[in-house]
Design brief:
GO terms for molecular function: iron ion binding; L-ascorbic acid binding; procollagen-proline 4-dioxygenase activity. The chain is of the alpha+beta class. The protein has helices spanning about 5-10, 10-15, 30-75, 80-85, 85-110, 115-130, 135-150, 155-160, 175-185, 190-205, 210, 215-230, 235-250, 255-260, 280-285, 335-345, 380-395; strands at about 160-165, 165, 300-305, 315-320, 325-330, 350-355, 355, 365, 370-375, 405-410, 415-420, 435-440, 445-450, 450-455, 460, 465-470, 485, 490, 495-505. β14 and β15 form a beta hairpin. The relative contact order is 0.10.
């Protein structure tokens, strides 16, 4: 089987194989920018290394050519002992073998100071800026598979650099498609793996002759395709693919694969099962709603200058997207300058992989949430402005507000359907559950990245500077299951958001209970 490491483990990874990558890159586009800097440094260092090695090689050539000429002249003499009998000739021959070859050739080749300097540079670079490892590659490939699944993206289109109907000029080579197929196989995504292997085979057929003539490339693709078919419950097809390999290459490793598969029971071609929310989730992520009957006047945008005196001269630009529960988008709440200031504040903090609440309230990292985040207090001028905006729009007391969570999504970054309330396992420092969510869009997104409410048939494309606000609890302070929502995978672009959650413990006079409970409204939406 083709040595997979030759496809994705470069010289620099071999050099720092024992090192530790700093943080995580694929889960945040902002962190990926660090990798661009790493590659730029590597390019410059490699160029310097190659130039220094070239100079050394040029010196070796000149020296060898000079010695070759003298050696040929000496051996062309009628009697070699006449040449060596000359004291200066004898001296020069002995000197070359005792000193020159050792000092000028052997020591530099064995020592190779330029190589050691290059190795040391890469080690420092990986320590200071970080370097991706195998888990990063798998994370990026999981992101690609996620995009295919949610948005129904064809493998052949992705390989051709076509995403969402747009051509980006970033088509993949057969080796890259093969590597994606291999990694997906290792991740247990057999059907998707098979699709990428088939595309790799086609691209290899259309590749330059020097690669087409390498039969073992075809064999390696067939071998993985046979194993994928076996796991998908197609043992006969798996056997045929292995037989094709062994007909032309009887000693190929497919022999061992064939014996291994014969000793196992093949997998079952079981149709993939998805969560109950998945169909609504993918439909809304693609910008498609289910048709529904509406009563009353259609929702329309309006200006609101009466919410607070702060908005008298510059009224709120309100876009209501759902009533009961109310979900409103307030446009133009943050300027580009303010957003840049928020990013500057966030840069002072460490971005960490976003986690979800697990058993007992413990935070765990899972693929259902792929992003990085940090937290900002309200002490800086720009964050003080954010605090006032939320207070004046929501009417809530900011004493119950959590710090703003600033998040950035990476390759296929998402947050699967979830509620913002806790209901159980409330953190000890919370004064009540999360009564409301205020989410600022801090960037536009070229494709994907919608916020969707899977039980309300609502999707919201990110609009830079806008604020989305909704209540997570009924007035009775019971949780409102209708507010289940998700952040769809980002297809192209970088999604940045700022979340502020408000606790109910300080809002008894800001949003008081009614005389009767209103929790019945969401009972039918409970899972």
């Amino acid at each position: 089987m083709l040595d997979r490491h030759c496809l994705y483990v470069g010289i620099f990874q071999l050099i720092i194989l024992a090192g530790v990558a700093n943080g995580e890159f694929y889960s945040s586009v902002d962190s990926m920018q660090d990798l661009a800097q790493v590659e730029e440094e590597l390019l410059n260092a490699t160029r310097s290394y190659v130039e220094s090695q070239q100079k050394q090689l040029d010196f070796y050539r000149r020296y060898v050519e000079q010695i070759k000429q003298e050696h040929e002249w000496a051996t062309s003499q009628l009697k070699l002992d006449d040449y060596l009998g000359h004291p200066l000739h004898a001296f020069r021959l002995i000197k070359r073998l005792v000193q020159d070859w050792d000092a000028l050739i052997f020591e530099p080749i064995l020592a190779n100071n330029a190589r050691e300097e290059f190795r040391a540079f890469v080690e420092v670079l990986s320590r200071d800026l970080g370097y991706p490892d195998q888990s990063e590659l798998q994370g990026a490939i999981k992101g690609l598979a996620r995009l295919q699944k949610v948005y129904n993206l064809a493998t052949s289109d992705l390989a051709d650099g076509i995403i969402g109907g747009f051509t980006y000029g970033s088509d993949l080579q057969w080796r890259e498609c093969y590597e994606i197929g291999v990694q997906l196989f290792d991740l247990g995504e057999y059907q998707r793996s098979l699709e990428w292997l088939q595309v790799a085979f086609i691209l290899l057929q259309n590749s330059p002759r020097e690669e087409k003539d390498e039969d073992h490339y075809y064999s390696d693709i067939r071998e993985y395709a046979s194993m994928a078919n076996f796991e998908l419950g197609n043992p006969k097809k798996a056997g045929r693919l292995l037989s094709q390999i062994l007909e032309s290459q009887p000693t190929h490793s497919a022999q061992q694969t064939q014996k291994y598969l014969e000793s196992r029971v093949s997998g079952k071609n079981v149709k993939e099962t998805n969560p109950s929310w998945f169909s609504n989730y993918t439909r809304l992520c693609q910008g498609r709603r289910l048709p529904e009957e509406r009563s009353g006047d259609p929702l329309s945008c309006y200006l609101d200058g009466k919410r607070h005196a702060y908005f008298t001269l510059a009224p709120l630009q309100v876009e209501p997207v759902h009533l009961d529960p109310d979900i409103n988008v307030y446009h133009g709440m943050l300027s580009s300058k303010q957003i840049l200031s928020i990013f500057e504040e966030a840069d002072k903090e460490e971005m960490v992989r976003s986690a979800v609440a697990g058993d007992g309230g413990k935070r765990t990292v899972r693929d259902l949430r792929v992003s990085q985040q940090t937290w900002l207090d309200y002490k800086s001028p720009v964050m003080n402005s954010v605090s006032r905006i939320i207070q004046f729009v929501s009417g809530f007391d900011m004493a119950g507000a959590e710090y703003m969570q600033v998040a950035n999504y990476g390759v296929g970054g998402q947050y699967e359907p979830h509620p913002d309330y806790f209901e159980v396992n409330l953190p000890k420092n919370f004064e009540g559950d999360r009564i409301s969510t205020s989410m600022f869009y801090l960037s536009d997104v070229e494709q994907g990245g919608y916020t969707v409410f899977t039980k309300l048939n609502v999707f919201l494309p990110p609009v830079k500077g806008a604020l989305v606000m909704w209540h997570n609890l009924h007035r009775s302070l019971d949780v409102d299951a209708r507010t289940l929502h998700a952040g769809c995978p980002v297809i192209v672009g970088s999604k940045r958001i700022g979340n502020v959650w408000m606790h109910s413990g300080y809002q008894e006079f800001r949003r008081p209970c009614n005389l009767t409970s209103d929790s019945y409204k969401s009972l039918a939406y409970r899972d």
